[in-house]
Specification:
The complex is a heterodimer of chains A (463) and B (356). Chain A is an alpha+beta fold and 463 residues long. Helices cover 51% and strands 15% of the residues of chain A. Chain B is flat and about 100 Å long. Chain B is 75% helix and 0% strand. The chains are: A alpha+beta (463), B mainly alpha (356).
Chain lengths: 463, 356
């Protein structure tokens, strides 16, 4: 521990330690707040769980840096009534009931929402409720949207309804007396002004102000009832945005942190320890043992590491910790064995080993107590440096599409982004945030590793 | 001078290397078959093929179900014998070993070359030039750029350039394909001046010169991504390497003797660094032809790396074994040639003082 103090002397390693501490705190926070099963379930839950999220939304903090504010998602629900959501029911006869729902909200963003959907739930025995839905703009213009009979679970995709879109375009054409050169999206008609600017998709601006969605329901049974949920999907979400399935990328990125750290560090440490043990045994016993070990190392040198790993993981669809085991096994006889062996060959001639032998220490005792601990400090820098490589190995496997199918990881997010054309469609955040995390992890390991190298192997410092 | 000892030494090394190749290739055959698992796939495919052929053949329409079954079974057994699957895996693995070692690479199980051939040799030879073009070029640029920068830095140790390079070295902890993502994003996605990937425009230009130009354009990003990733670490390691060699006692002695600096550099610093540099260069170039699986996937480059990838996910044993055998042979030959070169170059080896 004493020797780690100088680590804080180098500015570069201070940065590295800082990043690493942040990542560790993030991991602890993730593990403490979001159980793994929950994260994995959410990640694989499919679109229904995520129905209230916008698709391919940017992270929310982009608004902070941009003069035009992108919309956030607004959700209004009659199951959560408040000053903005009013529901009044009146009896109109023996069996008929009229329920009126008014949803008022302020829209103050500079861009149009990405989608607008209505979700209904209703309870009735035989006759379903009949709803009349209309939209009121800040200037008081009322636009009838739809008259519909709803099932127990129903929905009305306002922004993507083709019938409504044709109707609204016709309405607008009548008002303006001119036909725009493009089909004006429903959200633009609902949130934009009725004037000349609509004719050009570049010039049309959002009208900020108070909007209202009214639903008038005709219920034909005394016990019948319905609930409405209005979702005005924004274009930003969370700290990492959403993907093509409306999932919160943040979940995968949060859980990616402890997994990346654990994978990288445990692979690096266990491989180094195994290689060192093999090197020590090989150098200590020499002769037949040494020859066999060296030949095995050479055989492993010829075997292609990644293809074998790919084959095994394709065949067994293994989870990430089994991949870790395979990686460790395949690297056990890696080129590192040769370096450690050379190191131990020098050490075994040193006087303290001779002393140990003279008082009758056994082979095992010498290897475990005298040889290995002596080399441990010198191997720390390379272990820290190689941890970065293993973090990337996991990402690489995910990008090849052969990683763990269940666990959300950074590599998996990048792979999704690549596969669904994030770079072609301009969803750069989808690649950039996980990449930045990967890069930060790797660079922090590298910075610490290089500093440790200077501390533990002072020969480099002199030159 | 005793000539016998070095010759004996080399002969022993040759024998050991040959044995290693044999064992490694056998291990590769075993692993590439997943211990016999791939047999099941091949047998299943054969059965499916035979039954489809029989059922689709109008000549067998008149047969009843039992007769069809018997016919399928008969033809299946024949097919297995044709494929050589009537023997147990152990026996076959040694047959494979023999033909692999004699470089009869055979026919692939599933893959075929762009020209439609199933011959493993044709498949590999079709990919090889692409990978050599990209990765051997990259490695050569990287090697010499790193070498000369390292040399330059070691002479100006402690200067501003040196400090900047040392500071930037941690950037090399990110792999080449990772920088590739960003370069694609920047140059292909945002600036739209370079292609996303691939090796040549679609459709390929007919003019030879235009074709070469197009390939060059496609090479820019992969080469650049590897240079960004590995230049700093390679310059930094070379620098440290030269610094360690120039702080040896015999260099000090040479300087003390008043030998002019250029001569000291040439004779006392560069000369002893030559063997490790040659080893490095030859092994890097050798490894470069196996390509880079992930970089080739990211850039969609049709090289040996992506062949390796496709062969591994489809369990195409002959292709995998073919690649491994060629690599093993080349590696063994390179190592042996290096030993001979050292035996000639290094006076310690020449004198028969072997370091174990």
């Amino acid at each position: 521990m004493m020797r780690l103090k100088p680590l804080l002397r180098y500015k570069s390693s201070l940065v590295g330690v800082g990043i690493l501490c942040f990542l560790i705190i993030l991991s602890v926070y993730t593990v403490a707040t979001l159980p793994f099963e929950e994260a994995a379930r959410l990640w694989r839950a499919g679109e229904l769980t995520w129905l209230d999220n916008p698709r391919n939304a940017l992270p929310a903090w982009v608004n902070f840096f941009s003069p035009t504010k992108l919309p956030e998602t607004l959700i209004l629900n009659t199951q959560k009534p408040g000053p903005d959501v009013i529901k009044v029911s009146v009896r109109a006869g023996e069996n008929i009931k009229i329920s009126r729902v008014e949803m008022n909200f302020r829209y103050g963003f500079d861009d149009f929402p990405s989608e607008i959907n209505l979700f209904f739930t209703s309870t009735y025995r035989t006759s379903p409720p009949q709803l009349t839905i209309s939209w009121t703009k800040p200037d008081g213009t009322q636009i009838p949207l739809r008259r519909m009979t709803i099932a127990r679970e129903d929905r009305f995709y306002i922004s993507s309804d083709t019938v409504l879109s044709t109707e609204l375009n016709q309405l607008m054409e009548n008002r303006l007396g001119r036909k725009p050169a493009y089909t004006v999206p429903t959200s633009t008609i609902l949130f934009g002004p009725f004037d000349e600017t609509l004719l050009n998709p570049e010039s049309v601006k959002v009208v900020k102000g108070d909007y209202r969605l009214s639903v008038e329901g005709l219920l034909f049974e005394p016990e019948a009832d319905f609930d409405v949920k209005l979702v005005v999907y924004g274009k930003v979400y969370g700290w990492a945005g959403t993907d093509h399935l409306r999932r919160d990328i943040g979940i995968a990125l949060l859980w990616g942190t402890p997994i990346a750290l654990l994978f990288g560090v445990s692979a690096a440490v266990s491989i180094a320890l195994i290689q060192m043990t093999i090197g020590a045994v090989s150098a200590w016993f020499r002769g037949g043992v040494d020859t066999v070990m060296q030949r095995i190392t050479e055989v492993f040198l010829v075997l292609p590491f990644l293809p074998v790993l790919i084959m095994v993981s394709t065949l067994y669809k293994v989870n990430i910790w089994v991949i870790l085991l395979i990686v460790v096994f395949l690297s056990s006889f890696g080129p590192g064995v040769k370096n450690y062996r050379a190191l131990f060959l020098q050490l075994r001639e040193s006087p303290y080993i001779e002393a140990a032998r003279s008082y009758g220490a056994g082979d095992l005792r010498i290897v475990v107590i005298h040889l290995i601990p002596r080399v441990l400090p010198t191997m720390i820098p390379s272990v820290v440096l190689s941890a970065a490589d293993f973090v990337f190995l996991e990402a690489a496997l995910a990008i090849l599409g052969i990683g763990d199918p269940i666990t959300p990881t950074w590599g998996k997010v990048i792979q999704d982004a690549f596969y669904f054309g994030a770079l072609f469609k301009g969803h750069y955040y989808w690649v950039l945030i996980p990449s930045a995390l990967l890069a930060a992890t790797s660079i922090s390991f590298a910075l610490i590793g290089f500093a440790l190298d200077k501390i533990f192997n002072p020969r480099l410092k002199e030159v | 001078m005793n000539l016998l000892r070095p010759v004996l030494y080399l002969a022993r090394r040759a024998l050991v290397l040959a044995l290693t190749v044999v064992v490694a290739v056998y291990a590769a055959i075993y692993v590439a078959n997943m211990g016999g698992y791939v047999d099941e796939i091949v047998k299943g495919e054969a059965l499916l093929r035979v039954s489809q052929e029989v059922r689709a053949n109008p000549a067998y329409r008149g047969l009843n179900e039992t007769q069809v079954r018997n016919l399928i079974d008969q033809l299946y057994q024949l097919e297995l014998r044709r494929l050589g699957f009537d023997q147990p895996f152990i026996v076959r693995s040694f047959n494979y070993l023999y033909s692999a070692l004699s470089l009869e690479l055979g026919r692939s199980l599933f893959l075929s070359s762009d020209s439609g051939s199933r011959s493993v040799r044709v498949i590999i030879m079709e990919r090889l030039p692409n990978t050599v073009l990209l990765f051997t070029t990259t490695q050569l640029i990287l090697f010499f750029l790193g070498l000369f920068t390292g040399l330059y830095l070691s002479r100006r140790y402690g200067s501003r350039v040196d400090k900047v390079i040392s500071l930037l070295t941690p950037l090399s902890s990110l792999p080449g394909w990772f920088y590739g993502l960003f370069l694609i994003l920047l140059f292909a996605s945002i600036l739209r001046i370079l292609p996303y990937g691939g090796m040549v425009d679609v459709p390929p230009p007919t003019d030879r010169f235009q074709y070469a130009l197009s390939v060059l354009r496609h090479m820019v990003l992969p080469v650049l991504s590897w240079l960004t990733a590995y230049f700093f670490i390679s310059a930094y390691t070379r620098r440290t390497f030269f610094l360690i060699f120039s702080s040896e006692d015999y260099v000090e002695v040479a300087r003390a003797r008043g030998i002019p600096e250029p001569l000291v550099r040439r004779r006392y610093i560069l000369r002893p660094t030559l063997p490790p540099i040659i080893t490095d260069l030859s092994l890097t170039l050798l490894a470069s032809w196996t390509g880079a699986i992930i970089t080739e996937t990211v850039f969609n480059w049709p090289g040996v790396g992506s062949l390796f990838y496709v062969a591994s996910v489809t369990f195409d044993t002959p292709v995998l074994v073919g690649l491994v055998v060629i690599y093993a042979y080349l590696l063994a030959i390179t190592v042996f040639v290096l030993e001979v070169v050292y035996a000639v170059l290094d006076p310690r080896v020449r004198a028969g003082v072997m370091t174990r």
